[in-house]
Amino acid sequence: MSVGVQIAGGGRSVAARSHGTGLADLAAFTVGSDGLVASWSVTAARLFGCPASAVAGRDLGDVLMAGPDQRALLRDALAEVAAGRVWTSAAALSLTGGLDVDIRCEPLTGPGPGALVIAREHSRPPGPELPSAAAIAGIGSSLDLAQTAREVVDVAVPGFADSAVLYVSERLLSADDFVPHRDTDTAVVRRLAARLAGVSCAVSDRVLRPGEVLVLGEDSPCFRAMAGSSPVLFEQLDDAIAERIGRLPGGREITARYAAFLAVPLAARGAVVGCAAFGRTAGAPAFGAGDVSLAAELASRAAVCIENAQRYDRERRTARALQRSLLPGRPRVPAGLEVAHRYQPVGASMVGGDWHDIVPLPGGRAALIVGDTMGHGPEAAAVMVQLRTAAHTLAELELPPEQILHRLDLMAAGLATAPFATCIYTVIDPLDRSCVIAQAGHLPPVVALPDGTTQLLDLPPGLPLGLRVGSFEASEISFPPGATLALYTDGLVESRSRSFDDGVRSLRDALTAALGVPGAELTEVCETVTQALRDQGEDDSTLVLARIRPR
Description:
Elements: E1 26-32, E2 37-40, H1 42-48, H2 52-55, H3 60-63, H4 68-82, E3 87-88, E4 101-107, E5 114-121, H5 133-137, H6 145-156, E6 163-169, H7 170-175, E7 187-196, H8 201-207, E8 213-216, H9 221-228, E9 232-234, H10 239-246, H11 251-255, E10 258-268, E11 271-281, H12 289-326, E12 337-344, E13 352-360, E14 366-376, H13 378-396, H14 401-414, E15 421-429, E16 434-440, E17 446-448, E18 454-456, E19 474-478, E20 484-488, H15 490-493, H16 500-515, H17 522-533, E21 541-548
Antiparallel strand pairs: 1-2, 1-5, 3-4, 4-5, 6-7, 6-11, 7-8, 9-10, 10-11, 12-21, 13-14, 14-15, 15-16, 16-19, 17-18, 17-20, 20-21
Helix pairs in contact: 6-12, 13-14, 16-17
């Protein structure tokens, strides 16, 4: 690993330098924990072109470091050494005159804190260092847009280029679709990621801030690359970008290092949606025809990965928005009741066939509804939303539970997809401490009593919705204060490796344990029980807990 250090003064011509790789090319010197040069060897004087008399006792930052970014690297190195660790840098940066140096800092073993610094001239290969196939293949593995962009610039720097910046059309992010670059005299882009060799990621992100939106004019090489769908070679930044960077601390020093640039369009599915810009310092070879081909290959991979990441992000946000719109947000629970609920989709699905609802009713009562449509994913969710909306509307009409299930049954049978769904409908009355329950093929509820015991209620199960069975039966049970009613879907208790009996037994045990914790809130109990039973889950799961508050 290497770091470049710009010499503030002194130096020799590049032609006079040796490019050997033997021990004779190593230069060693020591610095104290305060960064002051303690000793300066003959080899250090030869490598850096500074005699010992000119540097002894001086701050190493004043002697060699040019710019705040390199001084930050020096502070990092001294901090690592002070902690007893060896420090090496992350990238190479050309010295004044084109010299690159590999540096290693080790803690001094003798008296007095400080560091032994070993330096050697780093010879850049005659051509670009090609990213490995494994590195390129690893781009985009996370399906995260920001992470994918960082992976692209990290692959390019420092091997292929000394700087890399990735821009994407702002329309891609705002319109959520890949659209071709329009024939206008400007392009609005957002910087996704940037990397500069020889400086920390913090410095790169400060100078070239990720997420910054830029308007590229006709004189911008990146605009020309996007408009012409072809690479553009150039020797200096356009005035707007240079001025923007130059206003930042250390910005002018950073831009002054670069002497060759290459802008390559990002194209996927026939549409140009962004641009990758690469730069090389004065000590590096300028971009050639072979470099253009390599950059185009990397940009092509980047565009495909960005497209995949953007599509995944769009689908995930759509699913989350749908899920949030379907689940009760802040239900109005009557004062005499406590209700907690927890829904978990299966796998990567954000929505599924489960639903639950809480509907306040006159007299301090509340209807609690839990349903499960066959399957999971968007298809099941489309059916679920219709049933949930209908159940909520029917509940507000204060129809008896058995009539509500009858009407849901007729509605489900009339849907084009001919689905089957289960449902349990309960009405809890805190005043007379009762609960009326009707089921349509749903799993029986569990009641946890204040003494720690649990009961699996034996109620008429009914047939699933969508079969046009014609009638359902409601049952009324006593529901004393302190008792907890648990409504759930089969995804919580059943799987291929766990039978219903075993799952319900686990549910009852988990309820007993969680409710037995002194002072446990019902929301905490719901979360604890859900997590305890989800280890073997293979389907969406829902758990709703309710209890009457003590008077």
